[in-house]
């Protein structure tokens, strides 16, 4: 039987109010809040740019790419239903759930890895949000153009600082304000994106429908491995894009009233929302070819080229809101918890948020001049490949090793005899499983000899991580591990 949700011992080395179980009567989120978590994830400027770039990267028919993106949405839905369930049941965030698999101190390792990746993403998404603010300021006041310092001019830097301060301020106001912001931003973004689609259609004419099926067929970059591998790579890259939220989805599902609400929110927010958003990306990107003779993949650039001042102003505000929304959800709140998990007695989630913001400021500042040169697909695939083994380990441990039963008190206990203490608080077998799986999954992105597996890094890493963990833990009987 699962342990009761009684108050765990207040061990400062493992416990603070941010990490504590949320009582069932305090969980106020429903399907709509989960739906908006995904809406804001999908609708960011980077999300649109990634989706649009996939339509022109692998030389596939536009509809084939669309199908691959939607398939990825269904797969991600299944993945987060698995990773979100334990936090719905026990009310604790991802860093605490990870203690069952990695050990009470060993869990700091996956939390740190997830935190580093999230901080990296946070800086990048902050830069993308700042391009929307820069578009707004340029439209209203004009101003300088040109690369400037680190590829950004004065207005670009001002916009970047504005976004940094706004995000930190919203986070400091608390999770309830973040939720309200998401509930407003998500639906509004769809309204503006649909408006942009109709404007592009009106300007391009009905000839856009011919472009939808043919404009993306292999004239720039055809995948030498063939269309089937190209299709699977599209699916793998989209899964990798969601990898950060997939692994720590418990940070959000812990606020949900029940598992049914979580599943409904995941369905409408993932495959359904991805299908609509990706169709808009396909439609608008095809329209840019008809209108401008080139494939524009940044919606801020598209709006700027359309030349409608009111649309530009509304779209700039909307893109800013959408990108800030996903940044807070996927890349700010998780590392705040992860950093707090390193030293709960000394670091609160607020302090972790400040540390996140400071480090990410420098990462985002380097996006134009350095990080973007890596390439969007390689960037996404690499971060996904690092996180994938952690997901596989946590899922295998919860469902196969612990049979969905955890001792909540033991998750916060430093007692050497407690079930999750392992060897000095570390489960070395889980660490070994991660190291071996991550080495191979990252190699699929960067080692030429494994180029045929490029785009499969997340899937490979998750399967290997979970498989190695289950194999190494096989001699541990369920009776020894469960309560």
Explain the overall architecture.
The protein is mainly alpha-helical. The protein has helices at 31-42, 45-57, 62-90, 94-102, 108-141, 154-172, 175-204, 208-214, 227-241, 243-247, 250-253, 259-292, 299-306, 309-342, 349-365, 376-401, 408-411, 428-446, 457-472, 478-481.
Show the helix and strand layout.
Blueprint: H1 31-42, H2 45-57, H3 62-90, H4 94-102, H5 108-141, H6 154-172, H7 175-204, H8 208-214, H9 227-241, H10 243-247, H11 250-253, H12 259-292, H13 299-306, H14 309-342, H15 349-365, H16 376-401, H17 408-411, H18 428-446, H19 457-472, H20 478-481
Helix pairs in contact: 1-7, 1-12, 1-14, 2-3, 2-12, 3-9, 3-12, 4-5, 4-16, 5-6, 5-14, 5-15, 5-16, 6-15, 7-12, 7-14, 8-12, 9-16, 13-14, 14-15, 16-18, 16-19, 18-19
List the defining traits of the structure above.
disordered C terminus; mainly alpha; 20 helices; globular; 483 residues; 70% helix
Short description:
This protein has 483 residues and is mostly helical. The protein has 20 helices and no strands.
Distance between the termini: 7 Å
The residue-averaged pLDDT reads 82
The biggest beta sheet is recorded as:
none
Please trace the helix and strand order, writing H or E for each element.
Answer: HHHHHHHHHHHHHHHHHHHH
What proportion of the residues form beta strands (DSSP E)? under 5%
- SS-based structural class? mainly alpha
CA-based shape: globular
Please tell me how large the radius of gyration is.
22 Å
Q: What is the helical fraction, as a range of percent?
A: over 70%
By DSSP, the count of extended strands is 0
- What is the count of DSSP helices, taking H or I runs of 4+ residues? 20
Poorly predicted sequence stretches spanning 5 or more consecutive residues? 1-8, 477-483
């Amino acid at each position: 039987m699962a342990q009761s949700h009684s108050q765990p011992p207040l061990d400062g080395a493992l416990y603070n109010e941010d990490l504590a179980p949320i009582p069932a009567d305090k969980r106020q989120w429903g399907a709509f809040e989960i739906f908006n978590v995904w809406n804001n994830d999908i609708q960011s400027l980077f999300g649109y740019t990634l989706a649009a770039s996939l339509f022109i990267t692998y030389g596939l028919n536009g509809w084939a790419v669309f199908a691959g993106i939607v398939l990825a949405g269904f797969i991600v839905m299944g993945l987060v239903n698995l990773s979100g369930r334990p936090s719905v049941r026990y009310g604790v965030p991802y860093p605490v759930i990870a203690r069952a698999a990695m050990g009470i101190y060993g869990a700091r390792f996956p939390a740190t890895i997830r935190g580093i990746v999230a901080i990296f993403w946070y800086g990048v998404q902050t830069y993308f949000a700042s391009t929307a603010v820069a578009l707004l300021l340029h439209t209203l006041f004009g101003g300088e153009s040109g690369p400037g310092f680190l590829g950004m001019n004065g207005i670009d830097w001002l916009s970047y600082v504005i976004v940094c301060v706004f995000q930190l301020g919203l986070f400091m106001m608390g999770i309830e304000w973040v939720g309200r912001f998401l509930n407003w931003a998500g639906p509004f973004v769809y309204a503006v994106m649909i408006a942009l689609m109709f404007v592009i259609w009106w300007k391009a004419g009905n000839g856009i429908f011919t472009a939808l099926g043919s404009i993306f067929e292999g004239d720039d970059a055809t995948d030498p491995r063939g269309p089937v591998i190209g299709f699977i790579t599209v699916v793998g890259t989209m899964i990798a894009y969601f990898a950060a939220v997939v692994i720590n989805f418990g940070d959000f599902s812990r606020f949900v009233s029940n598992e049914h609400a979580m599943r409904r929110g995941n369905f409408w927010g993932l495959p359904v929302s991805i299908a609509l958003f990706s169709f808009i990306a396909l439609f608008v990107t095809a329209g840019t070819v008809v209108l401008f003779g080139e494939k524009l993949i940044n919606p801020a650039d598209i709006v700027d080229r359309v030349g409608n001042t009111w649309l530009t102003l509304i779209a700039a505000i909307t893109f800013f809101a959408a990108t800030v929304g996903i940044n807070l959800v996927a890349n700010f709140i998780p590392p705040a918890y992860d950093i707090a998990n390193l030293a709960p007695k000394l670091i609160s989630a607020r302090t972790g948020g400040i540390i996140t913001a400071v480090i990410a400021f420098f990462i985002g500042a380097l996006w134009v001049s350095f990080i973007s040169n890596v390439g969007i697909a390689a960037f996404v695939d690499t971060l996904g490949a690092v996180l994938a083994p952690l997901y596989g380990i946590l899922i295998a441990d919860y469902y196969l090793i612990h049979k969905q039963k955890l001792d909540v008190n033991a998750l916060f206990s430093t007692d050497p005899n407690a079930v999750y203490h392992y060897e000095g608080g570390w489960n070395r077998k889980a660490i070994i499983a991660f190291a071996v799986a991550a080495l191979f999954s990252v190699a699929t992105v960067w080692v030429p000899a494994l180029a045929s597996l490029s785009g499969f890094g997340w899937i490979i890493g998750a399967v290997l991580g979970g498989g190695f963990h289950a194999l190494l833990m096989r001699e541990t009987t369920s009776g020894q591990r469960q309560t």
